[in-house]
Amino acid sequence: MKPVSHKLISYGKLHFFLAFLFLTLLFAAAWTPEGKVLGHAQLSSQLLLENPPANYLMSHAPSINERTLLDSLPLNPEYSTIWNVILGQDNGYRWNGVLALARPLFCLFHIGQVRYFCMGAFFLLLFGAALKISQKLSPAFGFFFLFSFLWGDILSVSYLLNYGGCFMIAFFAVLLLAGRKPGFWTEHLKSLPFIFYGIGAITVFIDPATVPIITLGIPLATVILLIHKYNLEHTASMLWKYTGSCSFSWSLGFLFMAATKWLAAAFASGQNLFPEYISRLAAGSLFSIGSPAKLLQLFYHNLKAFLSPAGFGALYLLIMLAAILAGYFALFLTGHKPKKSCKPFLPLLPIGMLPFFFYLLAPAHAYSNTEVTFRAFIATLYPLMLFFFCILDTKRISHSLHTAFHSIWRD
Question: How far apart are CA 76 and CA 34, in angstroms?
Answer without folding.
Answer: 10
